[in-house]
Design brief:
Rossmann fold; globular
C-alpha cells in the first residue's frame, strides 16, 4: 500500500494506459478520480473496480481540448484534496505535413500540451499549499523519433517532455516532483474489434522491438506507481522511455542480438 491515504486524478482513464494506472493506484491505497471523454461505460467499470478495492472513486466527464481545469477543483471538492496528477489523456489528429490543417494542429497541441499545462498549474497550487505532490505526464516515443505523418502528435509530445522539465524546476520549492513516461507500442485492445485493429497496426511492430513484443498497459502503470511513491523521491524532471528497446540504435536491434548470441562478436 505504497500510496495509502493519497488522492489521485488520472485523465483519460476509461481505457488503456489511464485505466491501468488508475487501478494500480487504487491497489496501492489511493482514492482515484478519473476523467473520460466518450467511454462512459468504461469509466463506470473502472470506478466500480476502484471501489471494489476498497477505495473511493470519482467519475468526471471532460473534453480536454476545451481547456478547462475544473476537474482538478471537482476532485478536491469530492475527495478532499489532491496529491497525484496523471496527465494521460492524449491523442490527436495527424496527416501528411503538407496536408495538416491548422485546426488539427491546434487540436493536437491543446490536447497533449495545453491541457496538461492548465491541469498541472491548477494542481500545483493545491499541492503546494498542502505539502507537495507528484505530477506524471504521459508522453510517447514519438517525442524522440520521427515517423511519417506524425508531426502534430510528435511535436506535441516533445513539448510535453519539455513542459515537464519546467514543472520540475519551478515547482520543486513547493514539494512537487514532475516526471514523464514515454511509452512505446502498447496493446490496449479489450474487444474483438480492437484486437483485430491492433493486429493490423501496432501488433506488427513486435519484430522491430528489442523485447520482441509490445507492452501491456500494466507495465506502464507500474512505472507510474513508482514515480508517485517516495521510492522516486530524488527523481524530478525526467522522461522515462518505457519502450522495450524500440528506440535503441540499429546495432542493438533484436535481429542483431539474436544473431550474435553464438559469440561471433563484432568488428568494424
Amino acid at each position: 500500500m505504497r500510496l495509502a491515504g493519497k488522492i489521485a486524478l488520472v485523465t483519460g482513464a476509461s481505457h488503456g494506459i489511464g485505466k491501468a494506472i488508475a487501478l494500480a493506484y487504487a491497489r496501492e491505497g489511493a482514492d482515484v478520480a478519473i476523467t473520460y471523454r466518450g467511454r462512459e461505460d468504461g469509466a463506470r467499470d473502472v470506478a466500480r473496480a476502484i471501489e471494489g478495492l476498497g477505495r473511493h472513486s470519482l467519475i468526471l466527464h471532460a473534453e480536454m481540448t476545451e481547456l478547462d481545469a475544473g476537474v482538478v477543483d471537482e476532485t478536491i471538492r469530492a475527495l478532499g484534496g489532491l496529491d497525484l496528477l496523471v496527465n494521460n489523456a492524449g491523442g490527436g489528429r495527424n496527416d501528411a505535413l503538407l496536408e495538416l490543417t491548422l485546426d488539427d494542429w491546434r487540436y493536437t497541441l491543446d490536447l497533449c500540451v495545453t491541457a496538461p499545462f492548465l491541469l498541472g498549474q491548477r494542481a500545483a497550487r493545491q499541492m503546494g499549499a498542502h505539502g507537495g505532490g507528484a505530477i506524471i505526464n504521459i508522453s510517447s516515443v514519438h517525442s524522440d523519433r520521427v515517423w511519417a505523418n506524425d508531426t502534430a502528435y510528435g511535436v506535441a509530445k516533445a513539448a510535453l517532455n519539455r513542459l515537464t522539465k519546467s514543472m520540475a524546476v519551478e515547482w520543486a520549492h513547493l514539494g512537487i516532483r514532475a516526471n514523464c513516461i514515454a511509452p512505446g507500442y502498447i496493446n490496449i485492445a479489450e474487444t474483438e474489434e480492437e484486437r483485430a485493429r491492433y493486429d493490423e497496426t501496432d501488433g506488427g511492430a513486435a519484430p522491430w522491438i528489442v523485447a520482441q513484443r509490445t507492452a501491456k498497459p500494466s507495465e506502464i502503470a507500474e512505472v507510474a506507481v513508482f514515480l508517485a511513491t517516495n521510492e522516486a523521491s530524488y527523481m524530478n524532471g525526467q522522461t522515462l522511455f518505457v519502450d522495450g528497446g524500440l528506440l535503441l540504435p540499429a546495432i542493438t536491434t533484436a535481429d542483431y542480438i539474436k544473431g550474435d548470441r553464438g559469440g561471433r562478436g563484432f568488428s568494424g
